[in-house]
Structure formats: structure tokens, C-alpha cells
Design goal:
This protein is mostly helical and about 400 residues long. It has one domain (about 1-195, about 270-290, about 305-395). The protein has helices spanning about 1-30, 40-85, 90-120, 130-160, 165-190, 200-210, 250-255, 255-270, 275-295, 300-305, 310-350, 355-365, 375-380, 390-395, and strands at about 195, 220-225, 235, 245-250. A four-stranded mixed sheet has the order 1-2-4-3, sandwiched between helices. Helix 8 crosses helix 11. The longest helix has about 45 residues, at about 40-85. Bound molecules: zinc ion.
């Protein structure tokens, strides 16, 4: 069984490495083609950033694999003999939190390198050590409070119910809904300042746009994203009353009013088409499949990993292996998401104009140095948004430069 699990994970790692190397050779070749969409210099810089990211990804993938082997060969067994005595809810929670804490610490050098070396080198990251430290501390506190409570709840469900995986699924799904509701109004403001958009021509135009699209204004905010990163973005989030549109301050600085309205129209398109609810439904389906699989593993799996089949073991195995199942279904999620993006683009261009949206998308890609071309396999697995070239084509806009 140990060999079976190791081989399964090995194929997962090999598939990821294969996709990364395919992308690297694709981009290396495309870098030398005549630039599209982006200006010549940025086209090349975007390719370099993409290549740096993929190479970094390969190294961190290999590191993850080493970590996985460490856990299944010695780590889990050792941690269990250290922490699990009677196997109650408290011990299980402590076990899972320690497992996650060790993983977090071991992954920290990669995060530090990515933020302070790689993304600084390409001029994206503006974060200072103080903000980084505060972010990390806040995340840890939130995680121990919310995550700890959730792990305790799941441990309890596992130890009490025979059909625990079904109840655990219901509990986790309720938490997903809860977090979606809390995130925009309670969690995100712990990290960023959200300011209601200033009164003025832009806000007036936005209100007209909202009225036209029949959506109740639930708040449009700007966020001080520039304290961490230079990249431009906008997003929509929340459920029910907490629904809001967030425009990064970096976006407002760089786009003109028509372009901003087109981007906003795109985000309103997501609301109009109920994409948040669709995403939540897709997540629910994935969670159900994961729980059905991990709730019915044969005992030999636990024996192979030197674990008792208590709550702590179930959760640890779930955390170690669910990414493999998740990866297999990623192309499906990507397909759904890219379809939604096309529809939101359509809506955004109807709100403003095709030209305004296209010009906004080009500016976004240019400023964010996102390379406009990608290997089809890479797109299938990783792209939540269609490549820019395809989006412009769908809008019917000429983009050659
Ligand atoms: Zn979108």
C-alpha cells in the first residue's frame, strides 16, 4: 500500500513537472516571436517573469515531494507517538495544528524568496518587512482561532458519527459559505484599508451603470493594494449583504474612466451571472467527492503510514493527498471559470464598449507583465482566465502592435 500511495503521488509530481517544462519551452520559443498585445520590452520582461516563476515552481514542487516522502515515511508516525496518547478531540486538534505548523515553517523560505527576491526583482513587490511580519502574524492568529475550531469540530464529528464523512462535508460546506460571507466585511479589512469610492464623476457613472444593470449597489470600494504590490486588479466577492466590488488603488491610478467602467462592468457581469454561487456549487461537488473518497479509505492505508485510524490520521491523510484529487479535476474548474470570464467580458463590453474593455485588459496585462501566450496544457490546468489573445479575439478587437 505504501508503494501504491508513493507511486500515485509520484505520477502527480511528474505530471506537474511535465506541464511546467512544456510551458517553459513554449514561452522560451514564444519570447523570440514578434511581440503581441504587450509593448516590445514588456513582452520580453513578461516572458522572463513567467520563466522565473515556472523554474521556481519546479524547485518548490520537488521540495514538496521531499516533504511528502518525509511525512509518509517517518513524520506522521513520529508526530503521532509524540502527541497522541488517548486520542481525544484535543489531542487530534493539536496533532493537526502541529502538522500544519511544521509545513508552514518549512515552506516559509520559499515564500520569503518569492516575495522579497523574485517579485522585487521584477518590480512588483512593494511590501516591507514590517507589513510582511504583521500579515504573517495576523494570518497565524486567524488560522489558529478559525482553523483550530474547525479541526476540533471535524475531529469530534469523526469520533462520534458512523457516517462521519457526510457530516464533515456538511460542516465544511457551511464553513465555506460562512467564510464567503465574512471575508469582504470582516477578514479582508484586517489586511487592507477599504475606502468607499469618492463622490464625483466616476462614482456617479458607476451608479448609473449599476442602475442600468439592475443591481443594487452593495458598495464599491478601493483597496490600498499598493502597499504590497504594484499589480492592478479588481474583484467581486461576498454573499448576500456582504457583496461588494473592490477596485485596487493601483487600477484606479492607471486606467481612464471608460476603462474603469468596462472593468467594473466585467465584475458586475459576474454578479449578474451568479458566478459566486456557481463557484460555491462547484466547490461543494469537489468537497463531496473528496470526503466520499477519504471517508472510505481501507485500514491498510493507515497501517502503511504507521497511523492509527483516529480523527488525527484521517485529517492528516486528507491534507496530504487531497491535492492529488484536486489536481485531476482542475481542468474542469478552469473550463468553467474561463467560460464565465468570456461571459463577464461580454457583459462588461455591453456596459461600456468593446474598445474600452479591450484597452483596459491590454493595460492590465502590460502593467502586470502577464505573458499573453501559454501552452494549451498549461492553460487547461492553471488558467482561471482565458489568455488575453483569446479574450481580445472573442471581443472582436484588433490587438496587433
Ligand atoms: Zn472576471
Amino acid at each position: 500500500m505504501l508503494i501504491f500511495i508513493g507511486t500515485l503521488y509520484f505520477f502527480y509530481v511528474v505530471l506537474k513537472l511535465y506541464i511546467s517544462t512544456a510551458e517553459i519551452s513554449f514561452v522560451t520559443h514564444a519570447r523570440n516571436l514578434p511581440p503581441v498585445v504587450l509593448s516590445g520590452e514588456n513582452y520580453q520582461k513578461a516572458a522572463d517573469y513567467k520563466l522565473a516563476n515556472e523554474r521556481f515552481g519546479i524547485i518548490s514542487n520537488l521540495y514538496d515531494y521531499a516533504l511528502f516522502l518525509f511525512w509518509i515515511l517517518f513524520g506522521l508516525g513520529a508526530l503521532e507517538s509524540l502527541l497522541i496518547k488517548s486520542g481525544g478531540v484535543v489531542e487530534s486538534t493539536l496533532f493537526v495544528l502541529s502538522f500544519l505548523a511544521i509545513n508552514f515553517i518549512l515552506a516559509l523560505p520559499f515564500d520569503l524568496y518569492s516575495t522579497f527576491v523574485k517579485d522585487k526583482k521584477f518590480g512588483f513587490s512593494t511590501i516591507d518587512a514590517k507589513t510582511y511580519l504583521l500579515d504573517t502574524l495576523k494570518s497565524i492568529v486567524i488560522f489558529i482561532l478559525l482553523g483550530g475550531a474547525l479541526i476540533a469540530l471535524i475531529s469530534w464529528i469523526i469520533s462520534v458519527f458512523a457516517l462521519w464523512w457526510l457530516w464533515a462535508f456538511v460542516a465544511i460546506f457551511a464553513v465555506v459559505l460562512f467564510i464567503n460571507m465574512l471575508y469582504p466585511t470582516f477578514i479582508a479589512p484586517l489586511f487592507n484599508k477599504f475606502t468607499p469610492l469618492e463622490e464625483g464623476e466616476l462614482k456617479g457613472n458607476i451608479e448609473v451603470l449599476m442602475l442600468k444593470s439592475g443591481l443594487k449597489s452593495s458598495g464599491i470600494f478601493t483597496m490600498d493594494a499598493s502597499k504590497r504590490d504594484n499589480r492592478l486588479n479588481a474583484y467581486f466577492g461576498g454573499l448576500g449583504k456582504s457583496k461588494r466590488v473592490v477596485l485596487f488603488d493601483t487600477l484606479i491610478k492607471k486606467l481612464n474612466q471608460n476603462e474603469l467602467l468596462a472593468v467594473l462592468g466585467h465584475e458586475l457581469g459576474h454578479f449578474k451571472h451568479k458566478d459566486i454561487l456557481k463557484n460555491i456549487a462547484a466547490t461543494a461537488m469537489l468537497l463531496f467527492v473528496l470526503f466520499a473518497i477519504f471517508g472510505n479509505l481501507p485500514n491498510s492505508v493507515y497501517e502503511a503510514l504507521n497511523l492509527k485510524s483516529g480523527a488525527h490520521g484521517v485529517i492528516a491523510i486528507f491534507l496530504l493527498l487531497s491535492s492529488v484529487v484536486g489536481f485531476v479535476v482542475m481542468p474542469l474548474f478552469g473550463l468553467l471559470s474561463r467560460k464565465n470570464e468570456y461571459k463577464a467580458d461580454e457583459y462588461g463590453s455591453e456596459c461600456e464598449s468593446k474598445e474600452a474593455l479591450a484597452s483596459a485588459l491590454i493595460k492590465l496585462a502590460d502593467e502586470n507583465k502577464s505573458f499573453p501566450r501559454s501552452h494549451p496544457l498549461y492553460i487547461a490546468f492553471y488558467h482561471t482566465h482565458p489568455p488575453l489573445v483569446e479574450r481580445l479575439k472573442a471581443l472582436g478587437v484588433e490587438y496587433g502592435k
